[in-house]
Amino acid sequence: MPPNVHVYHEAPSSLEDLLSSHMPRSLPLLRRLQFSKYRTASSPAERFILVADDDSYNAFTAAYIDVSGGPDTHMWLYSTLEDGEAYIDGDAQNHYRPQFDLLVRASIDIAKEYGKPTFYPEGVLLGSLNTRVRRVMENMGCLSSRLSGYYDKWLFKADKLGGAEGFVLPEGMKWDSPNYSDCVTAVERTDVPRTPDVLMRLPGLVIRLDDGTPISWAFIGSDGSLVSLHCEEQYRRRGLAKALATKLIKQGTGFPSQNDGWSSADVANDNLGSRAICKGLNGTVDWEVSWYISPPLLLFLCFFPTCS
């Protein structure tokens, strides 16, 4: 029997519960679902896809997609292929190929229904993609250009963060929420493809001087990851970024159902400063992720009737 495919305009509570039962591997997709549901940040073009072998949901793949998005991530997915031990044999990988095939087909249908060009002419940006899933989808021809390098997925628990208890800001500094001007500055300091408008929709925290100048900031991304963490050069090595990250992670997203305490960060292996902060927060590396542009959707539909 082929897998069953369900496409939702709004994520049902049952999908949120299903993803919650597969934490922490399902964290990016679960947080993206919750961000849409609880922060009234949904898009008319967004959809949730669930592909499962049967109603037991022992083996399934789920995704969020917003083909109207950009320049940041359009699509997140989670598959039970990600669970378990590090080694996955060929039979297990082949088991999920029909699920990924149907997921791609559903995504193409959603793009056709949208009927407008995507932000990237090449297709949609699939983000925080677990390497296990990425390898299978690459072999199937379901991915094209790689937009990023590979990143370690660091995991944090709010009740196990270390190193910033009792931290007091130096005189002349204060905690604050980011304003639009702060978000413009944050975008200028990083090459991550986000806009000030995107950052304004995210939970964030700023350390600023009494004259209003922001000197350190960070945000919680729509997938629950710590993003755009930055401290201006002249204020580094004072523990400010670490204290800010700790405070922001403990604040969390404010979602009614986020009581699991999990957060994450995607860090390149050669980003020694960010890795040091993650270690100082008692974070652990769990898996590897990357960002890919999918094949051009219309070309994919015309020339590749199946990616299997």
From TrEMBL:
This is Acetyltransferase. Gene3D superfamilies: 3.40.630.30. InterPro entries: Acyl-CoA_N-acyltransferase (IPR053225), Acyl_CoA_acyltransferase (IPR016181). It comes from Geosmithia morbida. Signal peptide: none annotated. It comes from the Eukaryota.
